[in-house]
Amino acid sequence: MSKSYVVVAEVRDGKLRQVTLEALQAVSLVKEDSDCVTAVILGHQITDIAEQLSQYLNGQVYVYDHIDLKTYNAEIHFTIIKDVLNTLNPHAIYLGHTAVGRELAPMIAAYLEAGQLSDVISIEKSGAEILYTRPLYAGKAFEIKKFTDAPQVVTIRPNNIAAADTVELHAQIISMAFTQASSLRSVVQDVIRKTSGKVDLTEAKIVVSGGRGVKSIDGFKPLQELADVLNGAVGASRGACDAGYCEYALQIGQTGKVVTPEIYIACGISGAIQHLAGMSQSRIIIAINKDPEAPIFKLADYGIVGDLFVVVPLLTEEFKKALA
Ligand code: FAD
């Protein structure tokens, strides 16, 4: 019997989030040809985004487009998703392991009395079994799990599973009616963005991170310039955040964000275990530190012993030339 899969899509700043395409790819790794995939997208004035999304799956896209959905509100989103679940009775629901996904997934799992696997970084088929890998203890160990039952709820860590490719036969777009829940217990009054970066930190392919060695707010400017040239994002250690050199929204580590970019450039960061917890899974790690004994060099693929205020502008210049 064919099964139904649901992917909860995410829109941010008027764009489809990359992790949604990664969640679609995750579904394509586990589903059979006869199974049906439905992407659910919620927002305001999202016709173009829904159209774009439809190019990545051969199934259906449920579109909820309403002014009240302009800003994410867990209560409203969950009310809608419950309706979708009741209609489709899915075998599995996939979400990004983002702030939104981390909030909605347990609500969905509790509602369906389903098993949940969070922060999945890879999926493998082994015979009839589907094996999900997820990091433990801040990336110091990994566990491989499988579901023994359905429904199943899965969140996918950004930047680990390749994004889905466009498909030949696009999904059918279905406009869904939205009637707002009558008695909301909370409403979003305002959203204040603390970071101005052009690229989302958790989804960036290249992250240029600064630590206490950056020494001041102005010290982050050369890092931002390098990140801009590479179309990357700027991150930070807690040392830099605590010192007031940057916003806590940039903090990477055990108590900050977890990033897994293609390239992580750590500038003036010593490499404390709590920092490594947020970036050790990066594909290539480059460390710039003037102390040759800094622990970050033990993890780094490439190390530059030197003053970051000399090295970073040189890198920026060289990349500018190379990418011109
Ligand atoms: P430092 O350790 O002070 O290192 C600064 C580095 O800059 C040094 O290695 C120095 O050689 C180098 N340097 C100085 N000047 C230059 C220069 N001009 N050029 C090149 N290099 C230079 N930390 C996190 O990052 N993220 C977390 O999520 C986190 N969570 C924590 C949770 C708990 C419960 C605790 C106890 C700690 C946590 N920490 C976290 C803090 C962590 O232990 C470290 O204190 C912190 O990561 C240190 O930041 P840093 O590397 O920027 O600073």
3D architecture notes:
The protein is of the alpha/beta class and 324 residues long. It is built from 9 helices and 17 strands. It has helices spanning 18-30, 47-54, 74-88, 99-112, 221-229, 238-242, 273-276, 296-299, 308-323, and strands at residues 4-8, 11-12, 15-16, 36-43, 60-65, 92-96, 115-120, 122-126, 129-136, 141-145, 152-156, 172-175, 206-210, 233-236, 263-267, 284-289, 302-305. A hairpin with a 4-residue loop joins strand 9 and strand 10 (141-145). The chain is globular and about 60 Å long. The model has no long low-confidence stretch (mean pLDDT 94).
Radius of gyration: 21 Å
Beta-strand proportion: 25-35%
Count of DSSP strands: 17
Distance between the termini: 54 Å
In which range does the helix fraction lie? 25-40%
Mean pLDDT: 94
Multimerization state: single chain
Give me the strand/helix succession.
EEEHEHEHEHEEEEEEEHEHEHEHEH
Bound molecules: flavin-adenine dinucleotide
* Gross geometry: globular
* H/I helix tally: 9
What are the segments in which pLDDT stays under 50 over at least 5 consecutive residues? none
